[in-house]
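Input record, target 12 of the design panel.
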């Protein structure tokens, strides 16, 4: 664990970490301090003690690898807490970070930028350190039509299967599409078991973070698709379950994962 160089760029702190990985690769890590207003942190594991914010990051990267998307360091008691970043504000979640009046410093890391052919319909969108390559629809479509349209562009309907990716979805839906938006999440196969478009089940932890309080509620019997519903509930965080036959805006992401 030798050879740590720390450089300060305009906003991002760049840590060049040597020998972090088994293969002794050098990795450049971009870490940004945040006030916790726009980009919030949700704790994903137990805290430990670290002698500095840099040590806190190094330990976080060793223990959680690329799941260390955010970390909180308190220089008063040297507590280091690993987290997941979220684009907020999250009205529906008790983040408890930073502790009010404490010396908690919140950081998030810049995740790798995916390949993206930006000459066509796709462009890069980033928030809180996570970037996605997306096509944004300029019209509304039923859920299954949205899937077909995405597939026709060698892409899938965008699904936010981590809190960081969900944050990109929420940010783009709120600030670019500015209207009700499908996300690739349904319980069409097994009622009440929501599954991402790539077949991965929605985890209980992520479910507790991304649904609007009281959702999914199957208000009508056929609500099997998940949407951001800004029209009805402007600016209020969290997904709603809706009939897949409704027409909403949507986003596509090139097949690759
Ligand atoms: C957050 O915590 C407060 C105080 O403990 C509680 O009243 C509130 O219901 C909690 N909100 C959620 C969404 O859990
Ligand atoms: C360190 O301080 C923070 C902020 O006051 C607090 O939330 C945390 O529990 C403390 N950790 C320990 C180990 O005392
Ligand atoms: C989709 O991928 C196939 C195979 O790589 C390619 O031939 C085709 O042109 C692509 N279609 C679009 C719309 O990009």
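The sequence produced for target 12 reads:
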């Amino acid at each position: 664990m030798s050879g740590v160089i720390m450089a300060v760029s305009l906003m991002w702190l760049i840590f060049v970490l040597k020998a972090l990985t088994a293969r002794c690769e050098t990795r450049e890590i971009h870490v940004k301090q945040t006030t916790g207003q726009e980009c919030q942190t949700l704790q994903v594991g137990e805290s430990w003690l670290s002698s500095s914010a840099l040590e806190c990051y190094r330990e976080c990267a060793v223990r959680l690898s690329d799941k260390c998307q955010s970390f909180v360091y308190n220089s008063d008691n040297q507590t280091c807490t690993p987290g997941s970043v979220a684009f907020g504000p999250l009205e529906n979640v008790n983040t408890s970070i930073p502790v009010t009046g404490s010396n908690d410093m919140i950081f998030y890391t810049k995740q790798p930028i995916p390949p993206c052919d930006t000459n066509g319909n796709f462009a890069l969108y980033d928030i809180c350190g996570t970037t996605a390559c997306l096509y944004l629809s300029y019209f509304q479509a039923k859920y299954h039509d949205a899937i077909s349209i995405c597939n026709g562009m060698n892409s899938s309907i965008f699904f936010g299967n981590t809190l960081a990716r969900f944050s990109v979805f929420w940010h783009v839906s709120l600030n670019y599409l500015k209207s009700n938006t499908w996300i690739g999440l349904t319980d069409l196969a097994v009622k009440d078991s929501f599954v991402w478009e790539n077949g991965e089940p929605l985890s209980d932890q992520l479910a507790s973070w991304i649904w609007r309080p009281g959702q999914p509620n199957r208000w009508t019997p056929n609500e099997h698709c998940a949407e951001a519903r800004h029209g009805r509930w402007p600016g209020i965080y969290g997904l709603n379950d809706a009939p897949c036959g409704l027409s909403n805006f949507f986003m596509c992401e090139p097949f690759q994962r």
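The two ends are 32 Å apart (CA to CA).
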